[in-house]
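WARN retry 2 of 3 for item q-0093 after timeout on previous attempt; input resubmitted unchanged.
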Amino acid sequence: MTVPPVNSNGYRDDNNRASTTIHSIIDGRDHLASDPERVHGLASGSSFHGVDVQACAKALESSAAAFKDWSQTSPQERRHLLLKLSNLLVDRGDEVKAMVEQEIHCSKLWAEINLLDSVALIEESAALVTSEVVNG
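OK item q-0093 returned
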């Protein structure tokens, strides 16, 4: 499938519908599929990029390397980072909800529920990371 080019208004069609390219992030950088077979169009005019075996292996290696750093991070720093993530999601909530609505084609209410549940789970994880019950 060929993804139509972006027009002068920054949209992928002449109806001025918003479009998004959903890509993978590997090593903190956007990874767009080089193989057109891995680019999948959505009804909204957006597209997402799948990965091939090599990119999947690179993502696994990147995750393993990140875990080495994370495993050396103190529980207090982990808690701080998780709460920072939670605050970022809350601060950018409207943007996050719009992405959820577009990506999974859901209602505003369902996007709100997803955001609130995500924030609650991250905050619970932050609390558990420094809990004496969990850490002994």
